[in-house]
Amino acid sequence: MPSLVDTHCHLAFSAFADDLDAVVERARSAGLVGCVAVAVDPESAEAALALSEQFPGWAHATSGLHPTEAACADPLAWDKVNAQLRGGRFVAVGETGLDRFHDDVPLATQQASLERHLGLAVELDLPVILHCRDAFDELLEQLAPWRARGVRGVLHCFTGDAAHIDRLLELDLHVGVGGIATFKPRDDLRAAVRAVPLTRLLVETDAPWLAPVPHRGRRNEPAYVADVASCLAADRELELEAFCDATTQAARALFNLPSAAPATPR
Q: pTM higher than 0.90, yes or no?
């Protein structure tokens, strides 16, 4: 069975509270050897950390302030995230980034928060998980000076075009692709993603949102990352197992994940 890592899910969110064990079992049965449980504020980071302790070696936690969260503008929330990440138990900084679709948090506030996240990621030598919605130009401009400082990470849930791919690769970033790429009308997105080398390509769900075909309209869950991988492998005319193994290796390298799958608890 192909090995997979869901590199971006919110498995510690309340959407999975009632059937978490069953969700994890389905994920393992689908070939997942790990997932990255992404936080949006200090509280969800603590929940993600607890998840990583519940499923050691399989679930991996992050800490950060999502740009649309009110906590993004709260200095005390940043102090908590800063302390969490310095504790050494998280695999990535974020998610952070820029979002002009929602107007809850001013763009300048988001940019200041992103700058703090980038600085800490470089200091701690951790990858950064980036969110972007309707703000590609602003995000890429802000990221450009950080390449020389060694920032590394992934733009998750990529929905841009070929020009954005070129600029992301120039910045030495990874590209995370989820369920939107499986939607029939998104030939443009699949064509753009085709240019990403497998060493820089990650697959994800963003669960519980954006379920891929054939699960659209349902709650998304990590097991469905297999459908994303199947779609992208077929689009490149690649053998599925080789595609999955390559993206899994890319995930392990970026997030410093274990190289062997943990044993399934009995």
A: yes
